[in-house]
Every structure is written in structure tokens, then in C-alpha cells.
Specification:
SH3 type barrels, 1 helix, flat
Length: about 100
């Protein structure tokens, strides 16, 4: 079995925005999983025989065992910059105050 992560390649990768050379842009990932089962408030999802637990509330209404789901992840640069600015302000106040 191939490893889930191999360099920057993610098995089950389905896409994202690409540059003119066809390279996927940094910070954008989409991965396809299968819902294996539900355990209480958790969904057990599977990719390449590896399983992960995610809260059921994150799944679309009506999702069932055996459904193929796509999880997209991206970096929110605006929110990241805002959090960093707030953290820096707090550190400045703590160490300079």
C-alpha cells in the first residue's frame, strides 16, 4: 500500500486551482473520502485504508455510510493576517507593558 502522504502528493486528490503549468496552487487541496461508518457523534471516513474521525455535523444532511465525500481545504489569508496582527499586539502589550 502506498503511503497517504508522499511528498506533496495526496492520494485521492481531486483538484484545486492550477497555474499555467498545471501545478496546483499553494494552500488549496481537495481530497475524496468514503464514509465508512458512524460512531456516536463522529463519522469514520476512509482513504487508502486509513481512517479518520470527523464530527458528523460537518457532513451534508443525509450523508450515509458508503457515500463518497469531497473535503476541500484552503488557507484564509485575510483571517490569518488578522489573527497574527491581534497576537502580535497582545505580545507587544505583554512584553512592553
Amino acid at each position: 500500500m502506498a503511503p497517504f502522504w508522499k511528498g506533496n502528493i495526496i492520494h485521492g486528490f481531486v483538484g484545486g486551482k492550477q497555474d499555467e503549468r498545471g501545478k496546483y496552487l499553494e494552500g488549496q487541496v481537495a481530497v475524496v473520502f468514503v464514509i465508512d461508518r458512524f460512531e456516536g457523534d463522529w463519522a469514520v471516513i476512509e482513504l487508502d485504508r486509513l481512517t479518520f474521525n470527523i464530527p458528523k455535523v460537518l457532513l451534508p444532511e443525509g450523508a450515509r455510510e458508503g457515500d463518497v465525500i469531497e473535503i476541500k481545504v484552503s488557507v484564509n489569508k485575510k483571517a490569518t493576517a488578522k489573527r497574527r496582527k491581534t497576537a502580535q499586539k497582545m505580545m507587544n502589550e505583554l512584553f512592553e507593558g
